[in-house]
Amino acid sequence: NAGVTQTPKFQVLKTGQSMTLQCAQDMNHEYMSWYRQDPGMGLRLIHYSVGAGITDQGEVPNGYNVSRSTTEDFPLRLLSAAPSQTSVYFCASSYREGQPQHFGDGTRLSIL
Amino acid sequence: EDQVTQSPEALRLQEGESSSLNCSYTVSGLRGLFWYRQDPGKGPEFLFTLYSAGEEKEKERLKATLTKKESFLHITAPKPEDSATYLCAASSGSARQLTFGSGTQLTVLP
Questions:
Q1: B 88-107 → A contacts, CB under 8 A
Q2: HSE-up (13 A, CA, CB side) for residue A43
Q3: Spatial distance between the Cα atoms of A86 and A83, rounded to a whole number of angstroms
Q4: CB–CB of A3/A102 below 8 Å?
Q5: Nearest CB to B43: which of A41, A44, A103?
Q6: Per-residue pLDDT tens over the stretch A58-94
Q7: Closest residue of A to B48, CA-based?
Q8: What CA–CA distance (Å, rounded) separates A73 from B18?
């Protein structure tokens, strides 16, 4: 009964490094999304996907890439990390768009 | 541009002291209003979805209501285990994106 699994839980990067945040769900959900959560700003949508092979930008997509080759996985790539990308990142999924989303427990990312 | 505003930012209650949290929204064609609970170090946990003005939903000590401009989360006789941050979010238009408020941090003192 895993739900939405995010790895790693914590990560420290240096400015300019790249990395991939992993997200996997085992509920056969079509819709998946990535958010960042910063103090006082709530959750902001980075990218989302309505099914395998289909992705689109959210509110704050710059500096991030996504792909969706399978229904289960939706990785988020930081191309060249910047201190402004220090945040907590949440992946979420739902049966389809507009339905309640299930969230993972987040990846806490620090960029030095 | 869709906007969701929550108030107050923080609320401290004594155990048993009922209160309400507010979520005001400005969206183009509301498709759904969602309430989530978030505990420290965890992801948000779904509580309720409301779809139309006048709708109400209840779960234990929590009741969510919806009007055309805002939603309320009423907490009746809260317990310390109700302490958490409560988030609301609105879905509009194609329903492909959620707009979240910044949350209300609730602390219930024993």
A1: 89, 91, 94-98, 100-103
A2: 28
A3: 6
A4: yes
A5: A103
A6: 999 999 999 999 999 999 999 999 999 999 999 999 9
A7: A100
A8: 42
- CA angle in degrees (0–180, nearest 5) for B71-B74-B75: 150
What integer pLDDT is reported at residue A1 of this predicted model?
64
The 3-state secondary structure of chain A reads CCCEEEECCEEEECCCCCEEEEEEECCCCCEEEEEEEECCCEEEEEEEEEECCEEEECCCCCCEEECCCCCCECCEEECCCCHHHCEEEEEEEECCCCCCCEECCCEEEEEC
Q: How far apart are CA B107 and CA B82, in angstroms?
A: 8
Q: Find out whether the peptide bond into B110 is cis, omega within 30 degrees of 0.
A: no
pLDDT digits (tens, 9 = 90+) for B30-58: 999 999 999 999 999 999 999 999 999 99
Instruction: Supply A42's token pair.
Output: 């709530």
Amino acid at B102: S
Q: Angle at Cα A86 formed by Cα A65 and Cα B45, nearest 5°?
A: 80
First-residue to last-residue Cα distance in chain A = 36
How far is it, in rounded angstroms, from Cα A88 to Cα A106? 6
